[in-house]
Amino acid sequence: MASPLATKRLQRELKALYKNPLSNPKIVAMPNEKNILEWHYVLEGPSDDPKSPYAGGIYHGKLIFPKEYPYKPPGVIMLTPNGRFKPNRRLCLSMSDFHPESWNPMWSISTILMGLYSFMLDNKPTTGSIETTTAAKRTFAADSLGYNVKNDKMFCSLFPEYVELWEERETERKEQLAALGVDVTKEDDNNNAANAVASANGEMFMNGGRDVLAYGAGLVAVLSILFATLRFFY
């Protein structure tokens, strides 16, 4: 249970975030309606750096505040798979509960989340971090919004604007697939979708790829017979 001081401080910080939202980078944070000591945040990947492996990513996590806040630091956790941190693991940061000795009571939720964002873009290892390829991080970024909506009820409850964004993107995706002739009522038929997208990009259909392999094998067999015949005569 939160102390009166912690409750008052966190309520004040919520008002401050409403008044001055973090827009660059975009970060939003909301408390759990049933527990003001549990805050959830959404951190968006860089919007001004398309080369970043986190570009387009929408990462959900939480801050677990002690009842002694602001005199003790919170635990910092990221829930969305991201390729930088282990999901659902407390992270060792200078402003997390791993380092109470370096905590400054003047730091706020905004300070903590901006520090987390900066550390995420860095490659420095820490407790709770992992090493993955740039390609893996890009894949996690592309899948992040859908993952949050499909797997996290708290995310959907606290951040309905992101659910609406996902629904808009899903509608656009299905319209594009329908325009390519894909039966969008059969979402489990991944081969049809993959083939249609590949065709739209001017690439070979997956089934066509197997036909080419079969054709190549037959061609090799014919050439082998031809060379054997030539050697017999010469």
Task: Please supply descriptive tags for the structure shown above.
6 strands; Ubiquitin Conjugating Enzyme; 234 residues; 7 helices; globular; alpha+beta; 6-stranded antiparallel beta sheet; 2 domains
Detailed description of the structure:
By secondary structure, the chain is α+β, with helices and mostly antiparallel strands. It folds into 2 domains: 4-163, Ubiquitin Conjugating Enzyme, CATH 3.10.110; 190-233. 48% of the residues lie in helices and 14% in strands. It has helices at residues 4-19, 109-121, 134-151, 153-158, 160-179, 190-200, 206-233, and strands spanning 22-23, 26-32, 35-44, 58-64, 75-78, 89-90. A hairpin with a 2-residue loop joins β1 and β2 (26-32). The radius of gyration is 26 Å and the shape is globular. Residues 191-223 and 225-234 have low confidence and may be disordered.
